[in-house]
Specification:
With about 80 residues, this protein is mainly alpha-helical. About 35% of the residues lie in helices and about 0% in strands. It is globular, with a radius of gyration of 16 Å. The termini are far apart.
Length: about 80
């Protein structure tokens, strides 16, 4: 009996699919999607972003934290 090995489908970059060039640090709802409950940035292998957009996303999240739009840590963790 031949067993078939299922190949995992590669996650596609959400930003490449929608042709988003600029990630706005003021768009809190979009950026929160790529953060854990504790406030950590989700890694690329889990989120499925390409390297270019992951770097832009990280910079936007850090800029949002610096401008006090997003928290550095969650409220329950403090």
């Amino acid at each position: 009996m031949a067993e078939f090995i299922e190949k995992k489908r590669r996650k596609l970059c959400r930003f490449c699919e929608n042709k988003i060039q600029y990630l706005d640090f003021k768009d809190e709802r979009l950026l929160r999607r790529f953060m854990t409950e504790r406030g950590k940035i989700v890694p690329r292998r889990i989120s499925g972003n390409c390297a270019n957009h992951q770097r832009k996303l990280t910079a936007a999240i850090k800029r949002g934290r610096h401008m006090a739009i997003m928290p550095f840590a969650s409220e329950s963790f403090r």
